[in-house]
Amino acid sequence: MAGKDYYKVLGLDRGASDDEIKKSYRKLAMKYHPDRNKGDEAAEERFKDISEAYAVLSDKDKKRQYDMFGAEGFGQRFSQEDIFQSFDFGSIFDDLGLGGQGGFDIRSLFGGGGGPGGFRPFGGGGGVHRGPTRGQDSKSPLTISFHESFHGGERALNLSGPRGPESISVKIPAGIKSGQKLRVRGKGQPGGHGGPNGDLFLEIQVSEHPVYSRRGDHVEVELPVPVTTLVLGGSVEVELPSGETKRLKIPEFTAPGQRLRVRGEGFKTKSKTGDALVRVQPAFPDELTDDQRAHFEALKESGL
Description:
Number of strands: 13
Distance between the termini: 73 Å
Structural class: alpha+beta
Number of helices: 10
Order of helices and strands: HHHHHHHEEEHEEEEEEHEEEEH
Shape: elongated
Strand content: 25-35%
Mean pLDDT: 81
């Protein structure tokens, strides 16, 4: 049922009242109940669908999260077992006048095996009970800066979930890159019946930097260099992500786009440390003085 419109399943519009939700479920459950449609697999599937929809929309907390996150978001946070947690079939069927669970096996209908984490009938009312179950894992995007990715650090986060607002601190390891995940243990969905909480996975996205970019474990740096230095050679200073400033020797006739390597100034990961690859580009002036223009004209005349 993950991703389906529970309101549509019950034939309701969004914003339907609790009374309308209950009346619609009662009508549909009477129609599709397995005891009234023996051997009809389509009716059984329909009954399962409407029961799942009602289990969500009749529970204030689950309905709030369904309305907040939508069908897809809700499906990522709740399994079918989570949905039917604390859903009392016995009282529902009594209310429908069907007498407890009816003549069918609830466990087989909803896939419960009766073991830990499965659905197990108890007492005379046909209610549902589960053993301790681990909460579902959650995921959330986290955008960090290039410098946070390079140096590592600590980030304060404000979480909003079933347990209410919560502030946590997350350590960002140096060298982490886009696409990697950070696990925050115990900050996922709550466990059931005393079971442990799931974990929160933060999906890392590193924002772009105007000067630096990542290439494996190396850092690429764009460095504007005067045209005369590229032709005649010389030296220039470059500021690296580490915060250090290095003076680089520029060989004569260095072509635009050529990379100069500064060892050990790249990303530091558990396995190795990358280098800084300084890519030189010609730095053209915005305008020329009369004297500069005369020199360029003379070079042009000479064939350069």
